[in-house]
Amino acid sequence: MVAVGTASPEPLKPDDLPLDSKQTFAWPMDPTTSTVRNGSRLNKVLLLRLDPEGFDPETKEHAADGVVAYSAICVHTGCDVTNWHPDQQLFECPCHYSTYDPKEDAKVVSGPAPRRLPALPLKIVDSRLVVAKPFTGRAGFQQM
């Protein structure tokens, strides 16, 4: 995982993400070839580090050292999920105000989103955050 907008693709470590701080936008990077997967905005993820004691079992399963990764694309109409409410520890899409709980597998708390944000399971290899498995669901939105 590498932060969006960095000049050199340096893999992120859990310690690069402050506990209980705002989300970091990142791209997956192939650890073998160092290819940054930024060719599609559907690959953009939200990384967030929280106390894993508050995670439900599904979230614990795909987190790494308290770091969770979710698709950054709202499943309602495809806007970027950019808002973070630190007091409630919730993500919010600024377009139609769908709100997601990152401690409960990004379930929809309020708003028109039809489903949770897909998670991107992580693991730690050589102290760096690495993708463990594909997204748990389809990233982006589906037109009706």
Task: Provide keyphrases for this structure.
mainly beta; 144 residues; 10 strands; 4-stranded antiparallel beta sheet; 26% strand; Rieske Iron-sulfur Protein
Written account of the structure:
- This protein is mainly beta.
- The protein has one domain (2-131): Rieske [2Fe-2S] iron-sulphur domain (Rieske Iron-sulfur Protein, 3-layer Sandwich).
- It has one helix and ten strands, in the order βββαβββββββ.
- The chain has one helix at residues 57-62; strands at residues 2-3, 24-27, 45-49, 67-71, 83-85, 90-92, 99-101, 107-110, 122-125, 128-131.
- The strands form three sheets. A four-stranded antiparallel β-sheet has the order 1-2-3-4, with no helix packed on it. Strands 5-6-7-8 form a four-stranded antiparallel β-sheet, with no helix packed on it. It has a two-stranded antiparallel sheet with strand order 9-10.
- A hairpin with a 6-residue loop joins strand 6 (90-92) and strand 7.
- The model has no long low-confidence stretch (mean pLDDT 92).
